[in-house]
């Protein structure tokens, strides 16, 4: 998802979504942790996420995997973990939205950039084909959006921070717009 209190001082996309949707949008809780992998998300899901979402009948936005790719994981491993995350939520009667991944040109991980991009594209193709089969109720296809989804989009300071990984206010507004379209 997105880290609480973005480093650029902007507004988190769920708050931007609330502004777009209006008073019918009740609220949200952000479970994201900066740098978290899908394995860590799965650990937190049982303890934190499921109890909160079942209590509040929330829609769970499942956006993760780029950190795994930074650490050398591949699309198949991402698919396995995302599938498990959605299915566990689904077995607890939680509505989930699946998110495709945007690119990363984060300098720290530049030596593996081509492999990471290949795996990201492979994962996104798999998710577009399988989101319903894994129990997701909607697909938020960030990677299909020309403003934020292309490999070179991360260099556009209108939507991304200088690190070429994290979105800025403009990018988060696009995410809110794409989520709103799925509500």
UniProtKB/TrEMBL annotation:
Mind telling me which SUPFAM superfamilies this protein's record contains? Answer: SGNH hydrolase
Gene3D superfamilies for this protein: SGNH hydrolase
- The SGNH hydrolase-type esterase domain sits at 8-172
Q: Which GO terms describe its molecular function?
A: hydrolase activity, acting on ester bonds
What does the UniProt keyword field contain?
Hydrolase
Enumerate the Pfam families for this protein: Lipase_GDSL_2 (PF13472)
Q: What is the lineage of its organism?
A: Bacteria, Pseudomonadati, Bacteroidota, Cytophagia, Cytophagales
What is the protein name for this chain?
Answer: SGNH/GDSL hydrolase family protein
Highest taxon above the source species: Bacteria
């Amino acid at each position: 998802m997105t880290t609480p209190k973005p480093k650029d001082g902007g507004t988190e996309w769920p708050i931007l979504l609330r502004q777009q949707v209006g008073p019918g949008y009740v609220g949200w809780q952000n479970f994201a942790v900066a740098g978290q992998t899908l394995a860590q998300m799965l650990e937190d899901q049982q303890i934190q996420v499921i109890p909160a979402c079942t209590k509040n009948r929330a829609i769970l936005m499942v956006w993760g995997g780029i950190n795994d790719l930074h650490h050398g994981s591949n699309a198949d491993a991402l698919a396995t973990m995302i599938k498990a995350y959605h299915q566990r939520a689904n077995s607890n009667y939680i509505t989930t939205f699946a998110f495709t991944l945007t690119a990363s040109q984060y300098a720290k991980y530049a030596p593996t950039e081509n492999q990471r991009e290949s795996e990201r594209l492979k994962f996104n193709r798999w998710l577009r084909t399988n989101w319903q089969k894994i129990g997701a109720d909607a697909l938020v296809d960030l990677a299909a959006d020309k403003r934020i989804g292309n490999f070179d989009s991360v260099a556009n300071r209108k939507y991304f921070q200088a690190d070429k990984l994290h979105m800025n206010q403009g990018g988060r507004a696009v995410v809110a717009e794409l989520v709103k379209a799925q509500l």
